[in-house]
Amino acid sequence: MRVIVKLFAGARELAGQEEIAIELPPGATVGQLRERLAEDHTKLFPLLSHALFAIDAEYCDNEAPIPEFAEIACIPPVSGG
Amino acid sequence: MILITEKPIETAKLLEQAQSPEAGAVVLFLGTTRQITDGRETACLKYEAYPSMATKELERLEEEARQRWPLTACLIAHRLGTVPLGEASVAIVVASAHRREAFAAGEWLIDTLKVRVPIWKQEQWADGETEWVHPTPTPPLAVSQPLTDPQGRIHTNLRISVTDRCNIRCFYCMPAEKVTFRPREELLTFEEIEQFVRIAATLGINRVRLTGGEPLVRSELPKLVSRLAGIPGIEDLALTTNGLLLAEQATDLKSAGLNRLNISLDTLDEKIFQEISRRPGLDQVLKGIFAAKQAGFEKIRLNAIAIRGLTEHEIVPLALFARKHDLELRFIEFMPLDADHAWKEEKVLSGESMRRILEKAIGPLEPVQRNDPSQPAVDYQFADGKGRIGFINPVSEPFCDKCNRLRLTAEGQVQNCLFSSEGWDARALLRGNATDADLCQLVRDCVAAKQPAHGIGEVDFQQPPRAMYQIGG
To answer: Using the beta-carbon criterion (under 8 Å), do B113 and A81 form an inter-chain contact?
Structure first.
């Protein structure tokens, strides 16, 4: 399945793009997505280990399976306020 | 109310919306663009958000704050785009009947917003460089996740039994004779209780009540009070007592940092007192009540049991006494937690019927607006403004859907319901080599297993094997 990952702030700047498309096996988890991003997009590496991920705008952990057509976002450490 | 905007935040409008006759305190927090950070000059800040998720997380923060504190208003506004020096990027306005809750909620909201809401700032340094701010490491999300059970109830309230011993033998709680108490070494020490509360506070527990048995028979109780009063995050520390030892301890408890007192008083007649408690001592209780007032306790609450066939005649004298001495009075329905297992549903004297008795004898009662949804009492005030009467109706009107309480028994078992027979053994962890994280997990497991309701009145309801004094009322 094809997964589109939204990028924000420093992550977007490091990658030089707003979204990354990645091909993953069906039922892949957020942890697997994280590993693939680290391999394919080495520029993201400094932020990746501290970043969280969201599926359909909800924080999730590495074990969470990625549903097809879900909105996936990479959330680097937040700094609002 | 949540607002994400590209425009300057209109703080005056937010404040206006927060002010109301129910509020006694309105707190405003603004986060503004600072010129100098660590010696380097900022020109302005730029903010961006993941908008749909930021809105959702902000709404969640508001909801959680309203569950944790009795707020009459809660508004959060965040600005996006460029925020010039001195202008606000975030505004939080909270209103509450009293300032303590408003300050606490405001501080919690900004602290939690900063670690949870997907909004980022970019420094626009005066020298022309720009830099996204990504604080590392991100505090683990779990720290700021509240104790939420499967029904979505957020737990902020902890009742701690400090002893199963008591100096009277009220039939609705204990057997008359041959009570076996736990040996002292089985009870949690003050150090252990303090450690548990410190950890619970990191999970969002902010209100603690000490109970028993009779808490004042535990020796040197004021020492425990002062330990607990100093724990960051604990905003309210209360105690429920039968009052017999209060005259000698009230001043010490007050100066140790106890905020509030509930005193059990079922009757003003010594004969009935002895029938209920099977020991003498009404005079001593009354002395205790006056000593507590003298010591400076405000809003002292009297708790009276309501049992059909026994307490009908006590209702009016108790209400008059409370009116005269400016005390709040609460009637609590008889619950199936008596050691003698004599509870029957017919013996429950409902709040509704007591209200009718009071109105007939004294005057009309008007409902008082509640600003804390988790407070189980339904409160009324006499129409002449003198005296406040509450009814806690766990049997006839269960308030399980609003329950935010956890219990720690005297021997260190965590329970998620007064009517549950299951305990999570915190003492084993406190006395073993467990880490704080292990204890956090135990508390979370206990909350996760909470049932939707106590089930009294349902066909399969079973009175718990332990009586009230063994759990902590």
So the answer is: yes
Domain with CATH 3.20.20.70 in chain B: 157-471
Q: What is the pLDDT of residues B21-39, one digit of tens each?
A: 999 999 999 999 999 998 9
Nearest CA in chain A to B120: A79
Residue in chain A lying closest to B54 (CA): A57
Residue in chain A closest to B83 (alpha carbons) equals A81
Find the helix packing angle between B351-361 and B312-324, rounded to 10°.
60
Instruction: Please enumerate residues of A whose Cβ is less than 8 A from a Cβ of B.
Output: 6, 8-10, 13, 47, 50, 52, 54, 57-59, 73, 75-81
| pLDDT one-digit tens code per residue, B194-238 | 999 999 998 989 999 999 999 999 999 999 999 999 888 898 999
Q: How far is CA A22 from CA A73, B127, B202, B422, in A?
A: 13, 38, 38, 48
User: Are B50 and A77 a contacting pair at CB < 8 A?
Assistant: no
Looking at domain B157-471, its CATH superfamily turns out to be Aldolase class I (3.20.20.70)
Burial label, A59 (beta-carbon count in 10 A; 0-12, 13-18, 19+): middle
Tell whether ipTM is more than 0.95.
yes
